[in-house]
Amino acid sequence: MLTEQHKEIAGKIWEIANRLRGPYRPPQYRLVMLPMIVLRRLDCVLEPTKDAVVKEHKRLIAAGTSEKAIPKLLTKIVDPDRKQPLYNVSPFTFAKLLGDSENIAPNLVSYINGFSATAHRIFEKFKFGEQIEKLDASNRLFNIVKAMADIDLHPGKIDNIQMGYVFEHLVMRFNEQANEEAGDHFTPREVIRLMTSLIYTGEEDVYKPGVYKEIYDPTCGTGGMLSVSEEAILRGNGSANLALFGQEYNDESWAICCSDMLIKDEETDHIVLGDTLGDGKTGDGFADRQFHYMLANPPFGVEWKDQQKVVGKEHAELGFSGRFGAGLPAINDGSLLFLQHMISKMHAAPDQGGEGSKIAIIFNGSPLFSGDAASGPSNIRRWIIENDWLDAIVAMPDQLFYNTGIFTYIWLVTNRKAPERRGKVQLIDGTRFFRKMKKSLNNKRNEISDAPGDDQIAELTRLYGNNKDGETAVVTVDGQPEERIVSRIFHNHEFGFLKVTVERPLRLNFEATPDRIALLDDQSAFASLSVSKKRKDEAAAAREEAEGREEQQVIREIVASLEGKGRYMDRDAFEADLDRAAKRFGRKVPGPLKKAIFAALGERDPQAEICRDSKGRPEPDSELRDTENIPLPAYPDLPDAFARAINEPQNAAQRGARLPLFFGPDSPNDDLVATMRGVIEDYIRAEVLLHVPDAWVDYSKTKVGYEIPMNRHFYVYKPPRPLAEIETEITKLEGEIADMLQGLVA
């Protein structure tokens, strides 16, 4: 978190930003201040060697040195150990810019143009040149540069992690009055620290001397997760070799992230600008590459219409050979697409000869339970859980983020579970592990503490590491300390269920009353008789419509002739009389019209006989149709034929299936029904037939669903207060009100 020193720096920068008022509205301050902060930070880094670099550059040019060799040679002047080119060959620094106030705009442009290629591209993405012209025209440029020159942003004064806090604080303030929120750019740093603490728990390899690991964030924003991850590992293993990779679609965030990487001498080519999912112009910047650790806070509750064409095509054409074979979520929330994307980048599991990978990703509540059985989200959950990749989910407090007050969740996903965690998922209720902030920041009113004596990050990490079912902790509930269960462990199959469709027979009575006969006009098959399809020949159309109206009248008369028959309780008996009546009129009622008559003259009646099809089978009543969710028992043994099928080379992606049903949409359910029929029948017999004996299951509609009901598993029932206590309280309140009214009357 921000120290007092860094709060002071952020405060000074905000004061400088306020000088932009007039030419800029507060939400636009960022257009100037963010690139200006980056420029000043680079200026502080390069100033000590600036004169030497300019001198050497002149010498190299005079000597005719190859342009390709110059960047490496100049970088060695800045720092002999530096690998990434970073230098500036212009004669300017912030201090020198102030020496020529009349020409500060062209000199500042010249200064920016003097940077090495990557740094120069950063300012191009900021589009800072446009702002220099505007600042100069409004007579603000000199004063802004002068004020920034007084702030020391050298990494020795404020390191990259703390600089991230400053950026976070400033962006939040720049946007607090705009539609765009700070949460679009930053994940609160204590949340990132919790994520990194969780993801590296139990990871012994990462702390081996000299180990090489690659860390990836597909929605890296300004690089906070990458920086904090690097810091966490190096704190425990200073000799670790870490490579950071990220992708970001927002130019401004990419520029901030790249500047941070550049200052740290990290590979800036590893930070790709573009849409991770694919928008038709850009796509996955690391196709066919795997990573050891992946962290992300993707947009949640955000539509993915801009990516729908690319993602849908990949899903349809590549299936599990691409990233999205398991399914597609609803169009209004694409967060599960990012998790599928990250899973596609896991190293092969240890039992397949690989190193395996581990993922930490932040979601809202939607991916836990959204979608019906066999829907895209449910199929994605099934694919993850049956493959035994879901390790744990940690529920975090609400009001942690700047742009939303909702509850959020950290999912931990890995294909290298420890033996004691295999086949299980740990759920941790961390919703009460927080402390109130002294001052809220937009929607952020809570924070997860890491203070000595109240280290909630360490406590949540300990709960995860302990991996105990039923572990408790003392938390605050309604202002009072209370011991609650905060850790639960479930077998994978306990999140699954079979959704079966329960049908009941259609029972109708029939009666040829005037009111029911009038309903024929509402039936499309009957109404269409008087509508001609001959659009071009008006005379022919008129004749056809007249014939149709005549036919309608005959049908009404046929039906009306049954009026004296009273109420039929059996459709077959009504149909037989209808056919006889039609024959008397010299007509035969065709099937579509007969259905229209049944619909108009029929009414549901539980006392009527069951309506049956031509094969004598009961017809289902759509209004009485219901579904039952049957909890999955322990995973069954797979049928031999299905087991052989998933071991075929072309079905390699299906080998994690624990139910005899292929992953992905629209899979045939014959094997599933055959395997689970006994389970379904036992449930229906015990839970349904006792209440509705004529019900049956339509097995063709049986589906598999998976959901993770976090709230249900940690729900604690509190009985209502005794009625006598409530009555006493009401009586007391009534007395107080009476006394108050008495005082008013007096």
Model description:
Strand 9 (435-441) and strand 10 form a beta hairpin. The longest helix has 23 residues, at 538-560. The chain is of the alpha/beta class. The strands form six sheets. A nine-stranded mixed β-sheet has the order 3-2-1-4-5-7-6-8-15, sandwiched between helices. The chain has a three-stranded antiparallel β-sheet with strand order 19-16-20. A two-stranded antiparallel sheet has the order 9-10. It has 27 helices and 20 strands.
Question: What class, by secondary structure content?
Answer: alpha/beta
How many helical elements?
Answer: 27
Tell me roughly what share of residues is in helical segments.
40-55%
User: How many strands in all?
Assistant: 20
Biggest β-sheet strands, sense, barrel: 9 strands, mixed
Task: Report the principal-axis shape.
Answer: elongated
Strand portion: 5-15%
**What Rg do the Cα atoms give?**
35 Å
> Which residues sit in consecutive blocks of at least 5 with pLDDT less than 50?
none
Average pLDDT figure = 93
- Distance linking N and C termini: 59 Å
For the largest sheet, list the strands in their spatial order: 3-2-1-4-5-7-6-8-15
What is the topology?
Elements: H1 4-17, H2 29-46, H3 50-62, H4 70-78, H5 94-97, H6 104-113, H7 117-126, H8 128-137, H9 141-149, H10 160-175, H11 189-199, E1 212-217, H12 224-236, E2 241-248, H13 251-263, E3 271-273, E4 293-296, H14 305-318, H15 335-343, E5 358-363, H16 366-369, H17 376-386, E6 390-395, E7 409-414, E8 424-429, E9 435-441, E10 444-447, E11 450-451, E12 454-455, H18 456-466, E13 472-477, E14 480-485, E15 487-491, E16 496-503, E17 508-510, H19 514-518, H20 524-527, H21 538-560, H22 571-584, H23 591-601, E18 602-604, E19 626-631, H24 640-646, H25 670-687, E20 696-706, H26 710-714, H27 723-745
Parallel strand pairs: 1-2, 1-4, 2-3, 4-5, 6-8
Antiparallel strand pairs: 5-7, 6-7, 8-15, 9-10, 11-12, 13-14, 16-19, 16-20, 17-18
